[in-house]
Write a structure and sequence with these properties.
By secondary structure, the chain is an alpha+beta fold. The chain folds into three domains: about 90 residues; about 130 residues, Jelly Rolls (Sandwich); about 100 residues, Jelly Rolls. Helix content is about 15%, strand content about 35%. The chain has six helices and 27 strands. The strands form six sheets. A seven-stranded antiparallel beta sheet has the order 4-25-22-27-20-19-18. It has a seven-stranded antiparallel beta sheet with strand order 5-6-7-15-9-12-17. A hairpin with a 2-residue loop joins strand 18 and strand 19. Helix 1 packs antiparallel against helix 2. The longest helix has 27 residues.
Length: about 375
């Protein structure tokens, strides 16, 4: 996630005071006032500064949550926060982002934040300023919403909406046990990576296998015995509106298929070249549109800075973590990250834990360098 700036400025209103119970002259006791000693202005300002520091990262999380659907979110948000010892009530006073997901997240964040005692009884107005980057290179899969129909659900991980890159898209599909996509025709080239065992056109596939589906070829993916997930790369990409609504952009096969079937690519037959196991390449798919395999890097390993002239690189992290440097900007990569690097973009990577990930290129080509490096 890149390109978010947060500005927080707050001004305290006058304190809201409670009326103390007057002492009973005949009781011999004195009832303590309900109010604690009033906080000084310095204490309030210090509490606001503490909140500013802690809310900055959390507000970036809100932007990242909204940016899973579109990256071009920017503008100003001003929220009035009415603070008490037991919580806070919020009211949006101004919004130019026009993004309901961002607003809901920021309001929820401020309402649940543990405000310091000097601010109890205060009402403060916090302005947030968000700036849109030119695109997005990393997204946390945990933030991406799922939508579905029946036993099939879809999450759009990477597309033109959230990356500004229309060359290729990545979605993840989840099939509940007994679920099936049905026999449907691919409208674009598809490269599947199966995260669990499934069947394709009633034939078994294993976890780790890939499947290339040329355009206008039909496939029926099913989960006969247990839930299964699969990662799908679509070339060309675009704005995946249908997938965001919970349906892959494919049509039902209306008659007899005559264009052949999908190309099955078992991981057991793939060859390893250095850190990369090539499963799908032009030699096996008979298509230059997309390639894919598994990359494994040990903790501390580095991929030097390089650039792909015309190809987009996509990465679906299976395990491990590291730092991806894109155009000089360092980005955290976690076990739930997906990454996209557009053409003509300098990038490098350093593993901070053992990494295993699915790596795709669209079009195919850069994967061939791993063969050359092992000769």
């Amino acid at each position: 996630m890149r390109g978010l700036w947060l500005a927080v400025v707050a001004a305290c209103s006058g304190p809201k005071t409670q009326t103390a119970t007057p002492p009973n002259p005949g009781s011999g006791t004195v009832t303590a006032p309900l109010d604690a000693p009033e906080a000084s202005q310095d204490e309030r300002l210090a509490a606001i500064q503490k909140a500013m520091n802690e809310l900055d990262e959390a507000a970036q999380h809100c932007w990242a949550l909204a940016a899973t659907e579109r990256f071009d979110i920017e503008g100003d948000v001003e929220v009035m926060v009415d603070i008490s010892a037991t919580g806070a009530k919020t009211q949006v006073m101004r919004d130019t982002t026009r993004n309901s997901k961002l607003l809901a997240c920021v309001s929820d964040l401020l309402g649940k934040y543990k405000w310091a005692p000097p601010l109890h009884g205060q009402a403060i107005q916090l302005p947030f300023k968000f700036r849109s980057p030119g695109g997005q290179n990393t997204i946390d899969r945990n933030l991406v919403p799922w939508n579905g129909q029946g036993k099939v659900s879809v999450a759009v991980l990477l597309d033109e909406n959230n990356t500004a890159n229309a060359q290729v898209s990545m979605v993840e599909i989840a099939l509940q046990a007994g679920g099936s996509t049905g026999m449907r025709v691919a409208e674009r080239a598809e490269l599947w990576y199966f995260l669990g065992p499934a069947t394709v056109n009633k034939k078994p596939v294993a976890a780790g296998d890939m499947m290339f589906v040329p355009m206008q070829v039909a496939r029926d993916v099913a989960a006969p015995n247990a839930d299964v997930h699969a990662v799908i790369v679509l070339a060309p990409g675009g704005r995946e509106g249908s997938a965001r609504a919970g349906a892959l952009p494919t049509r039902e096969l209306g008659g007899v298929q005559s264009a052949g079937g999908p190309v099955m690519l078992p991981a057991a037959k793939a060859k390893k070249y250095g850190p990369v196991t090539l499963i799908a390449e032009a030699a096996t798919t008979k298509s230059p549109l997309v390639a894919g395999g598994i990359i494994e890097l040990a903790n501390g390993a580095t991929v030097p800075e390089h650039v792909h002239e015309k190809e987009t690189e996509l990465v679906y992290v299976l395990s491990g973590s590291g730092t991806m440097t894109v155009g000089g900007v360092k980005l955290a990569v976690t076990p739930t990250s997906v990454v996209q690097i557009p053409p003509k973009t300098k990038h490098a990577f350093t593993a901070t834990a053992d990494v295993r990930a699915v790596q795709f290129y669209a079009p195919a080509g850069p994967e061939q360098r791993f063969k050359a490096n092992t000769k």
